[in-house]
Specification:
The structure is a single chain. With 313 residues, this protein is of the alpha+beta class. Helix content is 50%, strand content 19%. It contains 9 helices and 8 strands. The strands form 3 sheets. The chain has a 3-stranded antiparallel sheet with strand order 3-2-5. It has a 3-stranded antiparallel sheet with strand order 6-7-8. The radius of gyration is 55 Å and the shape is rod-shaped.
């Protein structure tokens, strides 16, 4: 009798252990458990931790609640301004209702992927090329709204959508490069012209100051010479201003007095070298001697014979 009781107890314990092993389930922290009993959905969604189900009768499906990163395959399309582009994007989404994600759609990941591709092609056709290249924030928001509306019915929430890359044809890239280069050159010319205008105004003001003070021009010339000569690698040609010649002319001593008339004598002609003819005095020299004789005659009151002129051989 005791043996039978022990055997029954052992059998019961074995059945309990097997039943517990078959009924025990563990749901991880980032998962939710959806139970189907005889194929019918139970309203009780199992939370993370240890849980029990009825073996053979219940089926537990675990749904991942983490954010899923899904790349959208590159889509080719024609923009509103008739430019062929190739655009790819990435979608971040997560399941917010585990029961709807299993019941309302067969494969929510595949559904989100197809919806993202369709929405991306639609966005390409409605946008200009400039918007795809420089105004992506607005396009990302539009994509997110287009995906979020149907995804909410599947128990899925779209976290964000980002356009990752926009590929252009090589001809379009070259055209854009030429356009950018032309725009840069235009701005450079405008800046140079503005600089020339400002410089001309300043130079006009400087010329006005220098015209009032002639010495300022000489000081500026000396400063320029000093700045150029500091390099010591170039030849400097220094012009002589007319004011300097006038200063030298004013500094010339006055004519000699009357008692020095006798001192004004023509130079003594020297014997030329053997075999050489004597040089003929120039016309300017002869005129100078004649004017000097006339001036001395007027001052002294006595006639002065001009110097004898040599005959031309």
């Amino acid at each position: 009798m005791i043996d039978e009781l022990l055997a029954a107890a052992a059998a019961t314990a074995t059945v309990v252990v097997v039943y517990g092993a078959a009924a025990a389930r563990v749901v991880k922290q980032y998962e939710r458990g959806v139970v189907f009993r005889f194929g019918r959905l139970l309203d009780d969604v199992r939370k993370p931790g240890f849980t029990m189900i009825v073996p053979v009768i219940d089926r537990l499906h675990k749904v991942n609640m983490q954010i899923v990163t899904m790349p959208v395959p590159a889509q080719e399309g024609i923009t509103r301004d008739n430019v062929t582009v190739r655009v790819d994007a990435v979608v971040y989404f997560k399941v917010v209702d585990a029961a709807d994600a299993l019941v309302r759609v067969e494969d929510y990941k595949f559904a989100v992927s197809q919806m993202a591709q369709t929405s991306l092609r639609s966005i390409i056709g409605k946008s200009d090329l400039d918007d795809l290249l420089s105004n992506r924030e607005k396009l990302n928001q539009g994509l997110e709204l287009m995906l979020d509306s149907p995804a909410m019915g599947w128990g899925v929430s779209i976290d964000r959508v980002e356009i990752k890359d926009v590929s252009l044809p090589e001809t379009m890239k070259r055209s854009m490069a030429r356009q950018a280069e032309a725009d840069r050159e235009r701005r450079a010319r405008v800046i140079n012209a503005d600089a020339e205008l400002q410089a001309s105004k300043k130079l006009a003001q400087a010329a006005g100051v220098m015209s009032a003070e002639p010495a300022a021009l000489q000081l500026r010339l000396l400063q320029t010479v000093m700045a150029v000569s500091a390099e010591k690698n170039s030849t400097l040609v220094l012009p002589i201003p007319v004011e300097l010649l006038r200063f030298l002319e004013r500094a010339t001593p006055p004519p000699l007095p009357s008692n020095a008339a006798a001192a004004v004598e023509p130079p003594v002609a020297q014997d030329p070298l053997p075999g050489l003819e004597p040089a003929r005095p120039s016309d300017a020299y002869l005129k100078g001697v004649a004017h000097a004789a006339e001036a001395i005659e007027d001052l002294a009151g006595a006639p002065v014979e001009p110097a004898p002129q040599e005959e031309t051989p």
